[in-house]
Design brief:
Shape: rod-shaped
Largest sheet: 4 strands, mixed
Distance between the termini: 69 Å
Order of helices and strands: EEEEEEHEEEEEHHHEHHHHHEEHEE
Structural class: alpha+beta
Strand content: 15-25%
Amino acid sequence: MSIFNKARTDGATRDGQGEARKGLIDVIKYNGEPDELVWKFPYDNISTAAQLVVNQSQEAVFFSGGAACDVFGPGTKTLSANNIPILQKLINLPFGGKTPFTAEVWYVSKTVRRNLKFGTPAPVELLDPLYNVSVPVRSFGEFGIQVADSSAFLTGMVGTLHLFTTEDIIEQFKSLIARKLSACISRFIVRQKVTVVEIGACLDEVSNFVRDAISEEFARYGLHIINFDVASVNFDREDANVKKILDSQSEAAKRRMEGYSYQQERQFDVMQGAARNEGGAGQMMGAGMGMGLGMGIGSMFGRQMGNMSGVMNPQAQQAQPVPPPPLVPAQYHVLINNVQQGPYDLSALQQMVQSGQVARTTFVWKTGLAQWAKAEDCADLQTLFASLPPPPSPIV
C-alpha cells in the first residue's frame, strides 16, 4: 500500500494530470487509503487562502525547502499569514490576498499500529554466561507503535523519497528490532545470571528489558512503542552445547533432590575408589590428603605403606616377620551440615547421638565401607539408637 500511486518526476499526480496544477489549490484534504500511515498531498501550488482539512487521528505537516515548517492537528483551517507564521517567515508571504506559494503537505496517521510481527531471520549465537558455551537461538514476538512526533518521523523515516509504502516503513522497524534484539538478550542473561535454556521462563522480564533498550532508538524517529512482547526464545535441543547444558542441569537437579552438593559427590567418588583400590597406597594417600580426611585415615595410609613395602621386599619380610597390627576400635567419619568431621570412636558417637548431633540418617564412613552410608544402616552403630524412639509416622 503506497503513499501515492505514481512518482512525481513526470508531473503526474494521483488526482490528475498537469491541468489541475495550473491554478491555485484552494482545498487541501486527505485522499489516501483509510489505513495509510503517511500520505503526501499531490499538489504543491497552494494559495494562502486555501482550506486545510485534517481528519481525526491525523496531523498535516508542511515542508518547504526540505525542512518541516509547521504541523496542524485535526480540524478545518483557512491558511493565512496569521495562522502559518513559520511559513510567513520562511517564504516572505505578504499579508492578505490569495498569494501562491510552493510547499509539500504530508498527512501522518496518529493511530496505534498493533500486532506488528518481528523475529530473527536466522539463529543468533549467544554466549551462555553460566556454562560459557555458545548457543544458537531465535526469537519471535509482536509490537505496537504510534507516531509521537510527525516532523521527526517524516524527516527520519521518509526523507525526500517520492514513493514510500507503509510496508517499507514497517520493514524498517523490524530490521531495527532484529539488530537490537540479540544484543539486548545477551545483556539480559549476563545481568540476571540466567542460562540461555532457562530464558523461556523470563519472557516478561526480557520483553520489558528489550523495550526499554530500543525505546530511545525509536524516539529518534518520532515513534513511541506502545507494547513489545517477546513470545518465544527458541534453541535447538539437538545442538551439542545445548545438550551439555541440559545434562548438567539434570545432574544438578538430582543432587538437590538427594541432598548433597557437587563437591560432596566428588568426595563420595574418591571414597568409593579408595575402598575398591586399597592396594594402591600411594594414590590413595594423595587422594586422602587432598580431601583433608584427618589423622585417622592418615594412620591407615601409613600402615598400608608399611605393608606395601613388605610386599615389594619379600626377603626383608622373611628376615624380620611383621607382627600383626593391634586391634583398633572402629573409627567413623561423620558428615554434619555438609562438613566432614572425625574420625570418632563408638563412645564419642554415643555422646553425639545423645546430644542430637548424629541422627539415624546422618551419613558416616569407615575403612572397609564401599561408600558413605546412613548411620542406622551400619550394624555396629544400630545399638547407639536402641534407646531412641523411632521417627514418627507421617500423618495421613
